């Protein structure tokens, strides 16, 4: 039987992220596992050629990351009070960063939410969860918001 000793909990700090944390925490307690909570901030590097100075973009991304790190500390304390959990804020494409962090952190399962986008939103924004599920080499538990 496979062992789950480390869980990657991918969040976006939306309202649904609390539900994702509930599942990750429940699984962690049942399996006596550690949790790595990850938030991927957008890099915005694709906007460098649009008459926006690169230093402005880097400054803006730095502010996003700084704010996300504070939010992450609060999120981990609030949602994982009795679980060994660490928070990580990374920059880049969310699906790629989730998969990279899962591999680097040697996790056994990924827990993440879905937004259930349809129609034009799905075409324009794609689905981070779908990309992770398609490309992951380990189990992925997706949690659909209520």
Describe the fold and architecture.
α3 crosses α5. The chain has 5 helices and 5 strands; from the N terminus they run βαβαβαβααβ. The radius of gyration is 16 Å and the shape is globular. It has a 5-stranded parallel β-sheet, sandwiched between helices. The chain is 46% helix and 20% strand. The protein is α/β, with parallel strands linked by helices and 146 residues long. It has one domain: HUPs (Rossmann fold, 3-Layer(aba) Sandwich), CATH 3.40.50.620.
Number of strands: 5
Radius of gyration, in Å, reads 16 Å
Order of helices and strands: EHEHEHEHHE
Query: Largest sheet, described in full?
Result: 5 strands, parallel
Strand % is 15-25%
By CATH, the architecture is named 3-Layer(aba) Sandwich
List keywords for this structure.
alpha/beta, Rossmann fold, 146 residues, five-stranded parallel sheet, globular, single chain
Short description:
The protein is an alpha/beta fold. 46% of the residues lie in helices and 20% in strands.
Give me the secondary-structure topology.
Elements: E1 6-10, H1 17-31, E2 34-41, H2 54-79, E3 85-91, H3 94-104, E4 109-113, H4 119-125, H5 128-135, E5 140-143
Parallel strand pairs: 1-2, 1-4, 2-3, 4-5
Helix pairs in contact: 3-5
